[in-house]
TrEMBL record:
<keyword id="KW-0223">Dioxygenase</keyword>
<keyword id="KW-0349">Heme</keyword>
<keyword id="KW-0275">Fatty acid biosynthesis</keyword>
<keyword id="KW-0611">Plant defense</keyword>
<dbReference type="InterPro" id="IPR037120">
    <property type="entry name" value="Haem_peroxidase_sf_animal"/>
</dbReference>
<keyword id="KW-0444">Lipid biosynthesis</keyword>
<keyword id="KW-0560">Oxidoreductase</keyword>
<dbReference type="InterPro" id="IPR010255">
    <property type="entry name" value="Haem_peroxidase_sf"/>
</dbReference>
<keyword id="KW-0443">Lipid metabolism</keyword>
<keyword id="KW-0479">Metal-binding</keyword>
<dbReference type="InterPro" id="IPR050783">
    <property type="entry name" value="Oxylipin_biosynth_metab"/>
</dbReference>
<protein>
    <recommendedName>
        <fullName>Catalase</fullName>
    </recommendedName>
</protein>
<dbReference type="InterPro" id="IPR019791">
    <property type="entry name" value="Haem_peroxidase_animal"/>
</dbReference>
<dbReference type="Pfam" id="PF03098">
    <property type="entry name" value="An_peroxidase"/>
</dbReference>
<dbReference type="InterPro" id="IPR020835">
    <property type="entry name" value="Catalase_sf"/>
</dbReference>
<dbReference type="InterPro" id="IPR034815">
    <property type="entry name" value="A_dioxygenase"/>
</dbReference>
<keyword id="KW-0276">Fatty acid metabolism</keyword>
Length: 954
């Protein structure tokens, strides 16, 4: 048992349960800040407490006494040791009130022991807290938020507070606050400040500390009743004449009754725990009314003091202190513009409940896609609200209980205006969120059943239900749509795999079947492929967790790479902002494959997309250089990356998705995500009533993670297993005359064969050939045959089997549980899944019950809504995650602005789409692109001309 647990008791029974409670309380405090800002009319957020600084200096000194008792000598507290200290003295309220208003006062010290060691000591001018614990602390803050007048304070004290905490608790809190706040304050140099909560003091155990005026401090005049800043003026006069000196004292822990750790409302009386002087704090004589002093004060006002900025030997104790870590981190990040909170308008909150209830009832009778467009859009809105509330599950391992740490370093200024290479620092308050190595989240509770990993045999499932007997085309799309989604998935999700042969999954084969696991290898009775690297091993019935090898953000990492070294290697070697391209604009080669951000599973479609957007990056670079001749090359590169990544997000949102989900409601919904609802009064009114934050489109909102740290999820990965889109054979056609140049298999257009082929036929003919041909339909028995004997990284795999096995082993629920997890009714019969008798027969042959059906099989078997390219169930995950990929991203919300992207960059995104990108780099294709549809719809095919001379003559 850790040493500190003899003093502490965790709310909820465990450190993790307590952490979750404190996270919710921290979010409540952010709302308090917003409320205080609104009430005060301020343009900026202030501290939740101690908003008004009276003094801020950086040149104070802390010196421990030469005769420091041996039992209190520990760590930085050594006899005669002296350290520089930053001091902030303040009023305690969360609103900047006049100094003569009743209030407590506060002191914050930052003791700088060394480059990697500081200690923040926080105190208030009353010996006990008004709150016993963290819950009371937050409820008090919520009740008192914005109470900046006598009438509002009275209403908060005598109405809101009792309703929140009960009458007796409210009475005790009022008594404590009033006792400290009503006492007249002559000078902050003459106040005593108490830590309230306890900290460890090395081997001495728990202590509370105090700051007391040193003996002989000069008196101060009576407090002013008219001067709002008299306390600062008094300190300025005092420091003009002499040093200001305080004694630092500590009270040692006695027992749980007289000196409790967990109850902040109990005073440690000096008759029980005498205050022992241990050090002297000296604020040297100085002038406060100078520009330099004001600059220092402003700098200190930007600091984020936190009692957890310390070392383990001096860590804070008690639930109030443990809550302070989450609360102070969140509050300071919010105040400094590193973290954001979105408050739902009250009308949206109140109307959301009946909206969701109404459509739950309607959906039992009529599915959403059969409703008229208006009600259908409201239904989608209700779906998304429900999913946001219940289907975002955090899987990251968090610090619990909290630990001491060095003071956080300031955010690198460059990272405010550019994406990092690995996805870190997108959320400036949580640098690792969504970065390379971040854990895949969940949209529903996982189901980890190792006993069912091979039941039914995934090879049998593949042969009976997935194998392509004959190509089934998706006639509303072209193959560019298939290439596009793989291009996107390479940016979003990538589970790391062990090297081939190091650690493998073994799938038993049905009787009589063998498999060659390596090219030219012997036949074996098991199918073997590389296992995913596990981040956290399963235990207690929980599944393993996995980290992504690419960032979860929409940051174009498939083009730019996910590390600084890769990204820099892809740029021109002379330091220019452009990406390296060979003659005629093709990707450079290395070991037969292109040198680019992500080249796994490489084929002609991926090559075309990556080549196209690498050229687009270079075009943006040239435009930026021409428009802003003084912009340095590094800034040009990072700005172009922002522009290209945002353009990709826009294309996916308003072009690709409406192409594959071709209904009017989806087209409106996705365009609303990007640019806000249509300008009709009815659409505007509906959005205002039910989800006002969508009125301007997501790029005009603040980042919002909707209650869970941003990540892509295992379920998201599962619904984007869209391999049936890939055909097994391809016609290469000349775009000028319509002549067939070649007919190729998938193996002829993938891997090392890809780049020689695209160089031979050119980007224009590649795009045209893919643009006039159809991808496969996302349905059963349409999995590409070429991917069922696919050579990858020295192994031969059946990708359909791999997809099934990976989904099972990652704990994604089977189809029926998947339905329930997305708030859809479970199916009871195989006939509920498909209306096709042959499909039902095959399902019954493979599965013993509907509860065994694999999720991927169920998604492929569903009869999708009219116009949909994939199932309604997969679409439920999409409803949630499509907007989340935009809403969580700082660079697609609060920092989607000209100051970051440049005016040229914003205009480039606004004016561009997939069609214009293709036209920019292959202008010869302009007449062949669809006139009234997206570039992912089938293109106009040129009719072959037998004799060009005759054609010219005619």
């Amino acid at each position: 048992m850790p040493e500190n647990q003899q003093y502490e008791r965790y709310i909820g029974g465990s450190p993790e349960a307590e952490r979750l409670i404190f996270e919710r309380l921290a979010t409540d405090l952010l709302r308090v800040q917003l409320k205080a800002k609104k009430r005060s009319g301020s343009a900026a957020l202030h501290r939740t407490f101690h908003a008004k600084a009276v003094l801020g200096v950086e040149n104070a000194r802390l010196r421990f006494h030469d005769d420091l008792p041996a039992e209190l000598s520990s760590g930085f507290a050594r006899p005669g040791a002296e350290y520089p200290v930053t001091v902030r003295l303040s009023n305690a309220g969360g609103v900047r009130q006049p100094d003569h208003a009743p209030d407590l006062r506060g002191a914050a010290l930052r003791v700088e022991v060394g480059p990697d060691e500081i200690h923040d000591l926080l105190m208030t001018s009353f010996p006990v807290s008004h709150a016993r614990n963290a819950r009371e602390f937050v409820l008090f803050a919520k009740a008192m938020a914005g109470a900046d007048t006598r009438l509002r304070k009275a209403f908060a004290f005598f109405v809101k507070l009792p309703l929140s905490v009960g009458w007796s608790t409210a009475t005790r809190m009022r008594r404590n606050v009033s006792a400290g706040a009503r006492r007249p304050v002559r000078s902050l140099a003459l106040e005593t400040y108490w830590s309230r909560g306890a900290i460890l003091w090395g081997e001495a155990g728990p202590v509370r500390y105090q700051l007391r005026p040193a003996a002989g401090a000069p008196e101060a005049p009576d407090p002013s009743r008219t001067d709002p800043d008299y306390l600062r003026r008094e300190l300025a006069r005092r420091l003009h004449r002499a040093d200001v000196v305080f004694d630092v004292c500590v009270q040692r822990y006695v027992d749980g009754r007289r000196t409790p750790i967990e109850d902040g409302a109990v005073e440690w009386r000096e008759e029980d725990a005498p205050a022992v002087p241990v050090a002297t704090l000296t604020i040297p004589r100085q002038e406060l009314d100078t520009a330099a002093a004001r600059a220092v004060g402003s700098r200190i006002d930007q600091l984020a003091f936190n009692p957890w900025n310390t070392t383990g030997a001096f860590r804070p104790l008690g639930n109030l202190n443990r809550a302070r870590k989450a609360a102070y981190e969140a509050s300071s990040a919010h105040r400094l513009g590193l973290r954001f909170v979105t408050v739902e308008p009250r009308r949206n909150t109140l109307l959301g409940y009946p909206l969701r209830a109404l459509f739950r009832a309607v959906n039992r009778i009529v599915p959403w896609h059969r409703l008229p467009t208006g009600p259908g859009l409201l239904n989608l809105m209700a779906f998304r609200q429900t999913l946001r509330r219940h289907n975002l599950i955090d899987t990251e391992l968090h610090e619990a209980p909290p630990a001491a740490r060095p003071a956080p370093v300031p955010v690198d200024e460059d990272l405010r205006t550019r994406r990092s290479y690995d996805g870190s620092w997108n959320d400036l308050s949580a640098p690792a969120m969504g970065a390379v190595g971040a854990t895949f989240g969940r949209n529903m509770p996982p189901v980890h059943r190792p006993d069912l990993f091979d039941t039914p045999n995934p090879v049998t499932v593949s042969k009976r239900l997935l194998h392509r007997d004959g190509f089934i085309p998706a006639t509303s799309l072209n193959i560019l749509a298939a290439a596009w989604i793989q291009f996107q998935v390479h940016d979003w999700v990538d589970h790391k795999r062990h090297p081939v042969g190091e650690k493998s999954v073994e799938v038993p084969l049905p009787p009589g079947m063998t498999w060659h696991n390596i090219p030219g290898g012997p036949p074996e009775k098991v199918m073997r492929f590389a296992e995913n690297e596990v981040l956290c091993q399963p235990g207690g019935g929980q599944p393993p967790t996995f980290a992504s090898a690419v960032s979860h953000w929409w940051d174009g990492s498939e083009i730019y790479g996910g590390t600084a070294s890769v990204a820099k290697s892809l740029r021109e070697p002379d330091g220019r902002a452009e990406l390296r391209l060979e003659e005629e604009g093709h990707l450079p080669l290395g070991n037969g494959l292109p040198v680019t951000g992500f080249r796994d599973s490489w084929w002609l479609g991926l090559s075309a997309m990556t080549t196209l957007f690498a050229r687009e990056h270079n075009a943006v670079c040239r435009a930026l250089r021409d428009e802003y001749p003084h912009m340095d090359e590094d800034r040009i590169y990072h700005t172009a990356r922002l522009v290209v990544a945002a353009l990709i997000a826009k294309i996916h949102t308003v072009e690709w998705t409406p192409a594959i989900l071709a209904t009017k409601a989806i087209d409106i919904a996705l365009k609303t995500n990007w640019q806000g609802p249509p300008k009709t009064w009815l659409d505007q009114l509906g959005t205002w009533l039910f989800e006002a934050h969508d009125l301007g489109g997501i790029p005009r909102t603040l980042p919002d993670h909707h209650g869970a740290p941003y990540s892509l999820t295992e379920e998201f990965t599962t619904v984007y297993r869209l391999h049936p889109l890939i055909p097994d054979d391809y016609e290469i056609v000349d775009h000028r005359f319509g002549h067939r140049l070649d007919t190729l298999t998938f193996n002829d257009v993938q891997g090392a064969a890809t780049e020689p082929l695209i160089r031979k036929i050119g980007l224009a003919d590649t795009l045209y050939s893919l643009g006039i041909a159809h991808p496969g339909a996302i349905t059963l028995n349409n999995f590409p045959r070429s991917l069922q004997t696919f050579e990858r990284d020295g192994e031969v795999i059946d990708l359909s089997v791999v997809d099934l096995v990976r989904t099972r082993r990652r704990g994604v629920p089977r189809y029926n549980d998947f339905l329930a997890g997305l708030h859809k009714p479970r199916i009871r019969r195989f006939e509920d899944l498909s209306s096709d008798p042959e499909t039902v027969t095959r399902l019954k042959d493979v599965y013993r019950s509907v509860d065994e059906i694999d999720t991927m099989v169920g998604l492929f078997a569903e009869n999708p809504p009219t116009g949909f390219g994939f199932s309604d169930t997969a679409f439920r995950v999409f409803i949630l995650m499509a907007s989340r990929r935009l809403q969580s991203d700082r660079f697609l919300t609060v920092d989607f602005r000209p100051e970051v992207y440049t005016p040229l960059g914003m205009d480039w995104i606004d004016r561009s789409g997939m069609t214009s990108v293709i036209q920019r780099h292959c202008p010869e294709l302009a007449s062949l692109l669809p006139r009234t549809a997206s570039a992912f719809a089938p293109w106009r095919a040129v009719q072959p001309v037998r004799n060009q001379g005759d054609a010219d003559h005619d």
